[in-house]
Specification:
Blueprint lengths: L1 E5 L6 E6 L3 H21 L8 E6 L2 H5 L8 E5 L1 E2 L2 E2 H11 L5 E5 L4 H10 L3 E4 L4 H45 L1
Helix pairs in contact: 1-5
Length: 175
């Protein structure tokens, strides 16, 4: 089952939700869209920062999706044909820049620690408060993604500048 929810024609962020339970998937999408509407209404985001939400119900469907379409991945820790840790590993191998958020029941607290240690951006316990926690979790993960990207760009610029300085220094020494 592949379901897409669009909130605007000028989408920038593509959220992939991998969830086998259609009720939980609908709840996550509703939480995401409600949080987005609140941010838009308050002026914290502009219309061009709206999201596109794609929901798939199995690990197989996700593995067949186009990695270029992932901006953030939210996956259940347990799926009928796999688990969120396999998806986390898959995403890290193809797109290490994409944050992966695992979800699970509160009784899976050990899984939360394991997920963070494995490199997940976050672990969201499904407690019924997702209308509040999911938008904040996504906003935090996307902000961290931007910071990491800017940091990588600055490191590249610094390396380039150091190389140019090294060349200029050698030229001056030869004079």
């Amino acid at each position: 089952m592949r379901t897409q929810f669009h909130t605007d024609d000028q989408m920038r962020r593509r959220v992939f939700i991998v969830e086998g339970d259609p009720i939980v998937a609908q709840h996550l999408v509703a939480a995401l869209l409600t949080g987005e509407k609140q941010q838009l209404d308050s002026g914290r985001i502009g219309a061009s920062e709206m999201v596109e939400c794609t929901v798939v119900s199995s690990q197989r469907e996700f593995l067949e999706s186009d990695p270029a379409l992932w901006d953030i991945v939210i996956t259940a820790s347990n799926l009928h044909d796999g688990n969120g840790f396999e998806i986390l590993s898959f995403v890290q191998g193809l797109r290490p820049d994409v944050p992966v958020i695992l979800t699970g029941d509160p009784d899976e607290a050990d899984g939360a620690v394991e997920a963070i240690r494995a490199g997940a951006a976050d672990y969201l316990m499904l407690t019924g408060h997702e209308m509040i926690t999911l938008p904040v979790t996504i906003q935090k993960s996307l902000a961290l993604q931007v910071i990491r990207s800017e940091n990588d760009d600055l490191h590249a610029d610094l390396s380039q500048s150091l190389s140019e300085l090294g060349v200029a220094n050698r030229e001056l020494q030869l004079m």
